[in-house]
Specification:
globular; 2 domains; two-stranded parallel ribbon; mainly alpha; 66% helix; Ferritin; 15 helices
């Protein structure tokens, strides 16, 4: 695929009027939103933590792209950003998550859906009027390189999965997109014909625990009190094992995003959840990268907090993470930064300092959105916390985190 250049937009092109552009943008942001949900579900289900990292980075990219497109739609006489989406396009987004393996999912979501977005953005850029469509030109030029990076990652991931099963799933998603008319012709409705049949009967369900591969064993994380009894070097190592375990927090947020995406919630809520999910996966990455620098690799994880609450409504999960767990752990943040600073450990200090700042922001998210969702509810945040505590008392080991 040729790179985007200043010559990719013609000075003399007629371009697109407001109605055309709004119709395109609604479809584009719909696919980005659909990929946000699909990636959130498969991030939990994908075994390799490196792939969880990549998918969550991509999820956050799609969230930012959808947000930017929606902001542009607000400036146009284009109507509601979530209206006027064809049922066949809904089917494409609904079906892509039902792959029977990570390799199938990557082939369908990245090579077909992301591929369709890339094709459409380039198509628009080639026909846009340099001045009339300048906002869209600027927007798409920023999005395309990130989507190309997504596809490149997918090609590398799939290098060892060139099999008939993956090919059939990819062809199925491509046929669904073709049946929907693609993304460039929203005003040319396709006639309903014989819709392609899925190549398998698998139906994806959000996992009830966090999938991992054979490298990780459940448990093995020391408590704060036990870590404090160790030498500085040993305590630091154990602390970054705990950072790695923030996979559980990212998975909770991914589960919230997956479930809430089909509810009538503001997109801004999904955007903040996606941001926090990305933050938490970065915190896990702090752990894996720092352990690697210390000559170690992650070996342990503990999904107990995810498992205790994954069956609760998404609002309870969000409240527990932001207003219970984040607040509970907050007292540890500043002393940890100072400890690393006193030992001249700049690498660890930078990671801990950023983590501290991120977690403060997450508590803000919790206060903001719990207040929003309870605005016309008879319950208070404390009532919600009591419901969570009762659930965990019946289904787990208490609300106090085990690490």
């Amino acid at each position: 695929m040729e790179p985007i250049s200043n010559n990719s937009v013609s000075v003399s092109a007629v371009g697109f009027d407001v109605a055309q552009t709004a119709a395109f943008l609604r479809r584009y942001q719909f696919i980005h939103r659909g990929l946000m949900r699909a990636l959130s579900g498969w991030m939990i289900a994908t075994p390799r933590y490196e792939d969880k990292y990549a998918m969550t980075y991509h999820l956050w990219d799609h969230a930012q792209h959808a947000f930017a497109i929606r902001e542009r739609l607000k400036e146009l006489r284009g109507g509601h950003p979530d209206s006027n989406i064809e049922p066949l396009l809904f089917r494409v987004v609904d079906e892509v998550v039902h792959a029977s393996s990570t390799s199938e999912f990557v082939a369908g979501a990245y090579l077909e859906l992301t591929g369709a977005l890339l094709k459409s953005y380039r198509w628009y850029l080639q026909r846009a009027n340099r001045s009339a469509n300048a906002p869209e030109i600027q927007l798409f030029r920023r999005i395309v390189p990130e989507l190309e990076a997504h596809k490149n990652w997918a090609r590398e991931f799939l290098a060892g999965f060139d099999n008939e099963q993956v090919a059939r799933w990819r062809e199925y998603i491509a046929c669904l997109m073709d049946e929907a008319g693609g993304l460039n012709t929203p005003n040319e409705r396709r006639k309903r014909g014989q819709q392609p049949a899925p190549p398998n009967s698998h139906r994806f369900e959000r996992p009830r625990t966090i999938a991992v591969d054979e490298r990780l064993q459940r448990g093995g994380l020391l408590s704060l009190d036990d870590r404090r009894k160790l030498s500085y070097e040993q305590e630091r190592t154990e602390q970054f094992k705990v950072y790695f375990n923030e996979l559980y927090a990212a998975a909770i947020l991914a589960s919230i995003l997956y479930d809430a995406s089909v509810s009538d919630v503001p997109f801004e809520f999904l955007f903040d959840v996606a941001h926090q999910c990305w933050d938490e996966i970065r915190h896990s990455e702090f752990g894996s990268s720092r352990l690697s620098q210390l000559g170690l690799q992650p070996q342990h994880y503990d999904p107990i907090v995810y498992e205790q609450i994954e069956s609760l409504p998404f609002l309870h999960r969000f409240c527990h993470l932001t207003l219970n767990l984040e607040v509970y752990f907050m007292a540890r943040k500043r002393p940890r930064v100072l400890q690393y600073k006193e030992h001249g450990d700049k690498e660890s200090m930078v990671l801990a300092d950023v983590d501290w700042s991120d977690e403060i922001n997450h508590v803000r998210y919790g206060k903001k959105w719990i207040a929003y969702f309870l605005e016309k509810d008879a319950r208070s945040p404390e009532d919600l916390k009591n419901e969570i505590a009762q659930h965990i008392a019946q289904n787990g080991t208490g609300i106090e985190p085990p690490f």
